[in-house]
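Bench notes, afternoon.
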Amino acid sequence: MNTTKTLSHLDWLEAEAIHIMREVAGQCERPVLLFSGGKDSLCMLRIAEKAFRPGRFPFPLLHIDTGHNYKEVIDFRDKRAAELGERLIVRSVEDSMARGTVVLKNENEPRNKHQSVTLLEAITEFEFDACIGGARRDEEKARAKERIMSFRDEFGQWDPKNQRPELWDLYNARTHKGENIRAFPISNWTEMDVWQYIERENLELPSIYFAHTRPIVMRSGAIVPINVPLANGEMLNQPKPGEEIIAMQVRFRTVGDITCTAPVSSDADTVSKIVLETATTTITERGATRLDDQTSDASMEQRKKEGYF
């Protein structure tokens, strides 16, 4: 009797991610797992659980907070880290602003690109030699150039022309002092894979990933949420003169700094509905929802060369 189990594509992707995460833990002295509370990093947490439980993770969690993140996501981040009993390190762009290492052009400038500075400062502070991130190659063309083990020099910079070969799934995480590896265990996953994995694993998510009604304005073809409450009680994203405020049912496909993350019109209020919606959409995940990706001076590739995630 043949009892061989046929593995699904999610099983293969999960096994690859577990292998990569264990390779990082085995090859690196002080790795850290980047965790924002978003859907991709929640998948990474589940991978870490399957890779290392019942023991503790062999690395802490790290979030670089812009200070302008959605309160629902920040609250969920803290809740999930506490449930797992793992160490969560938070470093804020606002701390870098106070030190003078980040200087905004104006108070309304999106802070996403400035996370690079704060991340590099955190890497120096804790002497991390590897950052495990949830980036996927299908998200954006610059991310498609990444290796699984993506080398950063002593200045934290990424050169897409100076990356190591990864033949036969052999990964090289060796670095000299001051250099760094960004490891991406779910590089080969797609947005659909993420949602199907979330559905299969029954992962809890921040509420803003599901359809809900909120005040928005239409700005340059994008849906812009307005009067968004921050964790400190302040309100962000005020409407501009002449803009019509509309109550619209929306959800977020990706989450980041409030000033540059746009939702999409949707009635998908369950994971199964999101899977169906993802299967039929013709717009890329970041194409209409990350406003900072649509400006040349803040292109993803340029930010990555400067040390971005």
